[in-house]
Write a structure and sequence with these properties.
Elements: H1 5-14, E1 22-25, H2 28-38, E2 43-47, E3 60-63, H3 66-76, E4 80-81, E5 91-92, E6 96-100, E7 104-115, E8 120-126, H4 133-139, E9 144-148, H5 157-166, H6 171-190, E10 193-204, E11 209-211, E12 215-218, H7 227-230, H8 240-247, E13 251-254, E14 259-263, H9 266-278, E15 285-288, H10 295-306, E16 313-320, H11 325-338, E17 345-351, H12 354-363, E18 369-371, H13 374-388
Parallel strand pairs: 14-16, 16-17, 17-18
Antiparallel strand pairs: 1-6, 2-3, 2-6, 4-5, 7-8, 7-10, 8-9, 10-11, 10-12, 13-15
Helix pairs in contact: 2-3, 5-6, 8-10, 9-13, 10-11, 11-12
The structure holds guanosine-5'-diphosphate and manganese (II) ion (MN).
């Protein structure tokens, strides 16, 4: 789960990581009020969307007057910001962060993430932070410093000093940086984060360090024990189909193919996607309906899959263990009667109550394509999608 920059900075503050004074605003008038209350003469106004790359695409601006703050906030709020990370449609800006502008001496990079190879938290740093960090990582990886943290003892002082020296800091800066790294590590660990990033981590005129940007991403499987983090979820930023699915206890991931998939079990769903690809097709989604799916749940699964206008055929592939084929079949019948399904539907049923399931489907008189095995079903679904495209 992702959160906004202003929310990340609130978490940083809680862990005493220095951030600029600032506040979120939902309108241009509010942005001006925030700037006024901050005082000073220069402010940074930043679009709050779940995507980076804003600085290069008009989502961040240094403003030298309240009039400029008003003008820029007005322009941003309600607009769709397109960055390399948003996709071509962009992301709707619903709020901005207004902050005290800082004088930057140097832009560094500092981040923590879970390294799946070592199965440890890794601290990553670079002397060349800022808006070109992706380019730096790709073309000069030697400029990126990494330190793996032993979970039994946590991030050690010597590791922090090593990282700080490695990114060219000296004297007092090293002590500042080491303290900040340990705080970031703690914030990361205490919130079940998957990623915490400060880019730029800025060295200011007085040699102090400040997080001018902040990004955190959390493990969705740990949210049940992180109510304070769950509260930060912004549903506006999420794929509406995926959200709809999660509210109906369905695991749905949107993809870009044209064969809609409704399957039980993550393993079978993956195998079904592989089989579709094997026959030259492309899955439109991953969808696991889980065990014991009721007819209503199947109907919801169809509804969600069919809101994707790229879908040219639907493959329902059920290997019923905990599930019951008769319930699934009732769900299909309910769907075909109540929803306008204008693409071919391929059904493959196996397992518990399979005879009853087919009986319900065949006696309904509704139109569907019968399939016997995974192989047969996938081939028929790919052909059906081609035929109706
Ligand atoms: P991103 O492009 O989405 O990662 O947005 P950032 O929050 O990183 O902002 C982009 C750039 O704006 C940073 O790399 C800085 O160069 C600049 N910036 C952000 N805050 C300040 C500030 O307080 N003062 C100055 N001078 N520049 C800033
Ligand atoms: Mn940034």
């Amino acid at each position: 789960m992702n959160i906004h920059e202003y929310q990340t900075k609130r978490i940083f503050s809680r862990y005493k990581i220095p951030v600029p004074a600032g506040h979120v605003a939902h309108s241009d008038a509010q942005a001006v009020a925030v700037a006024e209350s901050l005082g000073g003469e220069r402010w940074i106004v930043k679009a709050q969307v779940h995507a980076g790359g804003r600085g290069k695409c008009g989502g961040v601006k240094l403003c030298n007057s309240l009039a400029e703050v008003k003008e820029f906030a007005d322009k941003l709020i309600g607009s769709d910001l397109v960055t390399p990370q948003t996709g071509p449609g962009g992301k709707r800006v619903r709020r901005v962060l207004v902050e005290d502008a800082q004088d930057i001496k140097q832009e560094l990079y500092l981040g923590c993430l879970i390294d799946r190879v070592t199965q440890r938290i890794t601290v990553i740093a670079s002397a060349v932070g800022g808006m070109d960090i992706e380019e730096v990582a790709a073309s000069t990886p030697e400029k990126i410093i990494k330190e793996s943290v032993d979970p039994a003892v946590g991030l050690q002082d010597f590791q922090c000093r090593k990282i700080a020296a490695g990114i060219g800091l000296t004297g007092k800066q090293i002590i500042n940086a080491a303290t900040l790294m340990k705080r970031l590590y703690r914030a990361f660990r205490d919130t079940d984060a998957l990623m915490a990033e400060i880019n730029p981590l800025s060295l200011l005129a007085d040699d102090s360090l400040m997080a001018l940007d902040g990004k955190m991403n959390f493990d969705g499987n740990a949210l049940f024990r992180r109510a304070d983090i769950t509260d930060l979820r912004d549903f506006d930023e999420e794929d509406s189909k995926e959200l709809d699915a999660s509210q109906h206890d369905l695991n749905y991931i949107a993809l870009d193919g044209d064969v809609g998939c409704i399957v039980n079990g993550a393993g079978l769903a993956m195998a079904t996607m592989d089989a579709i690809s094997f026959y030259g097709g492309k899955p439109a989604n991953f969808l696991d309906v889980g065990g014991g799916a009721s007819p209503d749940k199947i109907a919801n699964a169809f509804r969600i899959v069919l809101t994707d206008s790229n879908v040219k055929a639907v493959l329902l592939n059920i290997f019923a263990g905990i599930n019951r084929c008769d319930w699934i079949a009732q769900g299909v019948v309910q769907t075909l009667r109540e929803q306008s399904v204008d693409v071919p539907v391929v059904v493959r049923l196996a397992g518990t109550n399979v005879e009853k399931g087919w009986e319900i489907l065949f006696s309904s008189g509704l139109e569907f394509i019968h399939a016997d095995k995974l192989d047969d079903a996938s081939r028929k679904a790919v052909e059906a999608a081609r035929g109706s495209a």
